[in-house]
Design goal:
Elements: H1 2-11, H2 14-28, H3 38-48, H4 52-80, H5 88-93, H6 95-108, H7 111-115, H8 122-132, H9 137-202, H10 209-216
């Protein structure tokens, strides 16, 4: 554990900050947030910090990247308007998430940009919805900066807190404890995999379209 934390600390630098900003940007960019493990990268960046200065740099860099991703979505929404609802990207992310973002924006205004940070899928569409709805840039900027700052503080902070706690946890558990924890996690993963496999086996098979049409025809 100590060697892992040392490796993370040695890796911290401009390149790691840049990667953190890129992943934060992708996490917030239109349509990419459901594909890119941005939160995992930001957690890792937080765990690599070992001083208040590094923590501050990570917080600012991640917040800037996330807000830049918001701006891309806002520009796309302003450019293409509500036509985006029927776009391939929105269909891939989920039209229901577009509708949810639209409802949140209508009810909560600029606060929706902050709240949506906690909602994967909705988060990546909200800036585009704001642009398509004609939300003023000044209000959008406030919501984006506040939301990005809180999101950065949450995930970078969790990573930094985990770094502080891991040595104590490792010392408490010891080698045998870590082995037991790993065995429990593997067992749990296996049980979940079997449950998913069982559900797929029990799910009814889709009826081919041709067969469905034949079944709808009246019997002679």
């Amino acid at each position: 554990m100590d060697s892992l934390l040392t490796t993370l600390s040695e890796a911290f630098g401009p390149l790691m900050l840049l990667l953190g900003a890129v992943f934060a940007f992708a996490e917030s960019a239109f349509g990419l947030g459901v594909l890119v493990p941005g939160e995992t990268a930001v957690l890792t960046l937080g765990a690599a910090t070992s001083s208040p200065g590094q923590l501050g740099a990570a917080l600012i860099t991640v917040a800037a990247g996330a807000s830049a991703g918001d701006h891309l979505g806002y520009w796309i929404g302003s450019r293409f308007g509500t036509r985006l609802r029927s776009s391939r990207v929105v269909r891939r992310v989920g039209v229901h998430r577009w509708e949810r973002a639209t409802t949140m924006l209508r009810r909560n205004g600029v606060l929706a940009l902050v709240v949506s940070r906690l909602l994967p899928g909705v988060r990546t569409l909200m800036p585009a919805v704001a642009g398509a709805a004609g939300l003023g840039y000044g209000r959008f900027l406030v919501g984006s900066v506040v939301g990005a700052g809180l999101w950065s503080g949450l995930w970078v902070g969790v990573g930094a807190a985990a770094r502080s706690a891991l040595p104590e946890v490792a010392a408490t558990l010891g080698v045998a404890g870590w082995g037991l924890l790993g065995a429990v996690l593997l067992f749990g993963s296996g049980v979940l995999g079997l449950l998913r496999w069982h559900r797929r086996r029990q799910a009814p098979e889709p009826v081919p379209a041709a067969a469905a049409q034949r079944s709808d025809q009246p019997c002679p």
